Amino acid sequence: MLEKLKEIALSVMDDKSIEINIDSRLIADLKINSYDLIELVCKVEDEFDVEIPDKKLRSLITVNDVITLIQSQK
Hints:
Largest sheet: none
Oligomer: single chain
CATH architecture: Orthogonal Bundle
Number of strands: 0
């Protein structure tokens, strides 16, 4: 799951040279802005067949937060 999330994150990131790991912070480390975050969430929903409510967006701080949310819906 982490590898697929890395692919998705790289597809929305401007700087492709940033290293992504499970503890990477979406905004602070990966430089994902609010528009990119929405695109990331849409791609995650499609890829993993989950639904991430808008009210959960603020709780998505790290890559691990995204993984935890996906796993909670499986």
